Amino acid sequence: MRRHQSGCLLVRAGTERVGLVLADVIGVVQLGEVRPVPVMEPAVRGLVAMHGRMVPLVHLASLLQGVAHPSGTGTVGVVMDVEGKRVCLEVEDAEILLREPALPVPAGEALPWAIGVARHGTELVPILDLSALSSRLLEATLQ
């Protein structure tokens, strides 16, 4: 059974709503001070302190769009486990927790970074496949 069937957290990334696999979510946090660091990935804002550890902060909308993060820092972060490493995704809002199993990506949809979709009212929301973005996300861990 795939992990995304346990549910997802719907978040707003820029103007889009996406789902994050609940099994990979460690927590939703208020963002504090960001320490800028030199990295190759333009979506990486820097490092933030989370429970005594420095964790990379990645602006999720910028990561999905392949652009540099905006100048102003948001206030909401979702701490995720990405292939055994912690990464904080900066989002505009963490909105809804859904426990329903994911649905397959509809035929003809081009969502290479989605592992499925979640139904929210009449809307189908793509559930983000962090593995598909892992090379860019793990760049943020400053290995």
| Proper CATH architecture | Beta Barrel
Total discrete domains: 1
Largest sheet: 6 strands, mixed
- What is the overall pLDDT average? 85
Percentage of β-strand residues: over 45%
CATH topology: OB fold (Dihydrolipoamide Acetyltransferase, E2P)
Overview of this protein structure:
- With about 140 residues, the chain is mainly beta.
- The chain has a single domain (about 5-140), classed as OB fold (Dihydrolipoamide Acetyltransferase, E2P).
- The chain has helices at about 60-65, 135-140, and strands at about 10-15, 15-20, 25-30, 35, 45-50, 55-60, 75-80, 85-90, 95-100, 115-120, 125-130.
- The strands form three sheets. The chain has a six-stranded mixed β-sheet with strand order 3-7-8-6-5-4.
- A hairpin with a 2-residue loop joins strand 10 (about 115-120) and strand 11 (about 125-130).
- Mean pLDDT is about 85; it is low at about 1-5.
